[in-house]
Amino acid sequence: FTSFLSAPVYSDAPLTVTRCIDGDTLLLSNGEKVRLIGVDTPESKNNAKTRRDAKRTGQDIKTITEQGKKAAEFTRQLVEDKQVRLEYDVQPKDKYGRLLAYVYVVSDIPNAVLPNKRVGHYDVQGEKYYEEFLNATLVWSGHAQVMTVPPNVKYQDLFLQLQGEARDRGAGFWGGRQKDESQKMKVDAR
After folding, report:
1. What does pTM read for this prediction?
2. Are 103 and 88 in contact (CB under 8 A)?
3. Catalytic one of 85, 98, 167, 177
């Protein structure tokens, strides 16, 4: 298990996640949609992206959508109705008007007090709060793949390292995938 400490540039105040739209997109209490930077979860519905992913990976659409539903549920359990802080990179919004951010799930429980760290979660210790780095958690747990879209590349190397660890452990959807799949980085101008 890897530990990662950072001093991120956060949003002014924590916001509450009101809904998990899918595994890598959230709706916040201020009405903003947030797309997680650097990660991509499978789609939970049959759409054009699902068909592209099926062609690219050789997996059938049913498998991809089942993985997408699992990723969305995993994310939902981590963030829905919880406070989060956002860390921004170079490009603040995507072409759909969504905020682009690294998301940290906030808790007032100090790291030392947590009885049992959940397996598959990637943690950082914030200055005032115990915070879980959601983007990294999704990759490390095998519920997301690395997706680098320049210029937002701050944690690309970390995410690739975590993806390799997830693949090697057979975590999440890596249980049945080829090992060389994780070396492919897709660039998607969402």
Report:
1. 0.79
2. no
3. 98
